[in-house]
Design goal:
Blueprint (H helix, E strand, L loop, with lengths): L1 H6 L2 H69 L5 E6 L5 E4 L6 H5 L4 E6 L10 E10 L3 E8 L1 H51 L15 H51 L3 H33 L6 E3 L1 H18 L3 E6 L5 E3 L1 H17 L6 E9 L2 E8 L31 H11 L3 E5 L10 E8 L14
Parallel strand pairs: 7-9
Antiparallel strand pairs: 1-2, 1-5, 3-4, 4-5, 6-8, 9-10, 10-12, 11-12
Helix pairs in contact: 2-4, 5-6, 6-9, 7-8, 8-9
GO molecular function, one term: phosphorelay sensor kinase activity
EC number: 2.7.13.3
Pfam families: HAMP, HATPase_c, HisKA
Length: 474
Amino acid sequence: MKILSQLRTSSFQLALLYMVVFATSVFLLLAFIYWRTAGFMTAQTDETIEAEIAGLAEQYRSGGVNGLISIIRERAARDPDGKSIYLLVTDDYLKLAGNLSNWPEQARESQSAWINFTLDESLGWRGEERLARARIFEVQGGLQLLVGRDIQELTRLKRLIEQAINWGLAITLALALLGGFMMSRSTTRRIEVINTISRRIMNGHLSLRIPTKGTDDDFDQLAENLNQMLDRIVYLMEGIRHVSDSIAHDLRTPLTRLRNQLETTLMAVDNDEAREHAGQAVAEADQLLATFNALLRIARLETRGNAADKTEVPIGELVADACELYEAVSEDKSQTFEQSIDSDVTIEGDRDLLFQMVSNLIDNAIKYTPEGGNIRVAVSPAGSEVRLEVSDSGIGIPDGEKENVFQRFYRVGKSRSLPGNGLGLSLVSAVTDIHQGRIDLADRYDDEEHPGLSVVIHLPVTVPDGRGPDRQEN
């Protein structure tokens, strides 16, 4: 699959285009070389034959037919290997002289002065079959003369050149393909690093940065620009977060005083209507204080980063304790509270934070599940991780909003009429990040009206020290 994905990359397609252009240019160059080489050798053979004919013509002019026959016999005798080919025949193709016994069929049918034919037994050739090239012309008195050369070696040489060209082209294509693949692979690796880091940053790991190689090439410049952009975004986000945290911190003290004064007033008034109004004011103040406390708690968690107070935590027992605490609340709403907890499961983490995380999940499940609904809590080992699942048959979360519910103060449209501040899952996300875990949200789908929600948290058995696996150097 990796090879297929490599072939679909733009860098490989660009390398493939370059390979095609390069291979085409190499093919044209080799074809030109072959055309010039083969043409030169053929021309050289034809010139040799023309020289032979010129010599025979001179002998014919000086000695007539007898002289021509004599010189042909003499030359044939001096060339036992048959490199030169001679055949003088009458108008009815009877042999007068030469090293062939019969007139070639190609010579009888061809209208051209030049012919290519095969030397074999039918022509009286005694050796192995060979290719030959000859020229035919008429001699005075109806005689015909064929003068040629054995071109077997020339043909072999042409074939060797053709094979060399074919192999050269094949090797060129293979090297170009290999080079293109390696070049695109190197480029794709760097792009994939950027894509991988970018996806993890989008998933909330804003501390990550794209690594550079120090070559100051295009990819390094792109990485540096992206890192500077991320630094600026984090700086602005930290500024906004600092303002909200400061507001929450500064308002908590006077709000606490106000709440205490309202509670004192509540105890002092005798009028039932005034007491009811004061009680409502105290409840509203408690809700505001809970919101501010949650904001400050999340800020402290995010400031701590991965510096959790790590100890051996029996997560199964911890979840069982949280279930026991909330089971009574669930019974008040006539909800079914199911548990499937492996009490022997242990992880390394911060007990207080983990208990707070589990409590938030169970509290949300009970809150957003109607009376008579179902709550299920499960803890089980999963290799090097622990799987914690809290599911309900409540109102659920639409698919388009699942990525937003971990933001501060974000509330799903269906839940706005219910009490809450939209900080519960933000706290869960912060605790999960500290323990280097991950969260999955899925619909439970008991029915269409109440699709329910399944929150699955995967926690590593051992939390990595230091910066953790999700952090990289620039």
